[in-house]
Amino acid sequence: MHRKRKPGLLAPGKMDKDRLIALAFLWPSLVGVLMFFVLPFGVVCYYALIDNPVQHNFVFLANFGKLLSNSAFQTAAKNTATFSGAAVPLAVALSLLLAVLLECRIPLKSQFRTFFLSPMMVPVASVVLIWQVIFHYNGALNDFLLVFGADKIDWLKSDYSQLVVIVLFLWKNLGYNMILFMAGLSNIPRDLLEVADIECAKPWFKFFHIKLRFLSPTILFVTILSLINSFKVFREVYLLTGDYPYETLYMLQHFMNNTFRSLDYQKLSAAALLMAVVMVLIIGLLFIIEGRFGKDVEG
To answer: What is the b/e burial string over 19-35, where b = at least 16 CB atoms within 10 angstroms of the residue's CB?
Structure first.
């Protein structure tokens, strides 16, 4: 007698064939990831542990010690941490506030949403030109301040320079983050909100105890995305101020770019590896926080 196969199970030959077909479709991507991500990262790790590209003497962590004692790196790391520490929470909080506001019945909702999405369509060069027109020493903002008798400020060469870039960062990223939060709000179970309304729950209670808990995965994603974008603000700062900007605008990307120009591959590799480790630790911490905060709403 022939034993019948349970429905839903594939024959061994069929499974092997499907795996080969899947592997045939996956191998170009796997080769690309290996060549352009894994292999270069391995090269960076190797250069971070040798003394120079000629002799290749193994020095272990000596390059990291020199890097941490470098004053330019200390300044760049401090400025990057300060910028990300201020810009990322603001980007998350303000975009969430805008999404909640657009969820309400307000006039001109479509125009309001379009206004915050429009910066996504503006090229970086045009954004920089706008900021130069506004924040230049002879720009529009100083002309406006002169009306009230205030003195001119060279915004990009003063202690306010990082604030200018934070405003640029928020203007550029709030719209996209807002759309992500609006999608997250639309996925919150309506029955929970209706029960809260029946129980006469206050708006703040619904926000903190229902909406915010169901938005925890979206908050995690938006925070990681904003953190990554905060490290990419180098483009705007470089176009605004060049290789060596005012001290508070000297970021890690400036340090790496200038180190690459001087062909100091060991210092550059050590900085890149240290930056990658810090990013992994921060993202891992965010996953742990989100896991504890949102575990009661899973499933």
So the answer is: eeeeeeeeeeeeeeeee
| pLDDT tens digits for range 202-261 | 877 788 877 888 888 899 999 999 999 998 888 888 888 877 788 888 888 889 888 888
C-alpha distances out from residue 178 to 165, 268, 285, Å: 20, 35, 23
Candidate CATH numbers 1.10.3720.10, 1.10.10.10, 1.10.3470.10, 3.40.50.2300; the one for domain 70-297: 1.10.3720.10
What is residue 38's DSSP assignment? I
Other Cβ atoms within 10 Å of 81 Cβ, number:
13
Burial grade of 91 (CB within 10 A; 0-12, 13-18, 19 or more): buried
The pTM of the full predicted model, rounded to 2 decimals, is 0.82
pLDDT (tens digit per residue) in 262-283: 888 888 899 999 998 999 999 8
Token pair for residue 198?
A: 């029946």
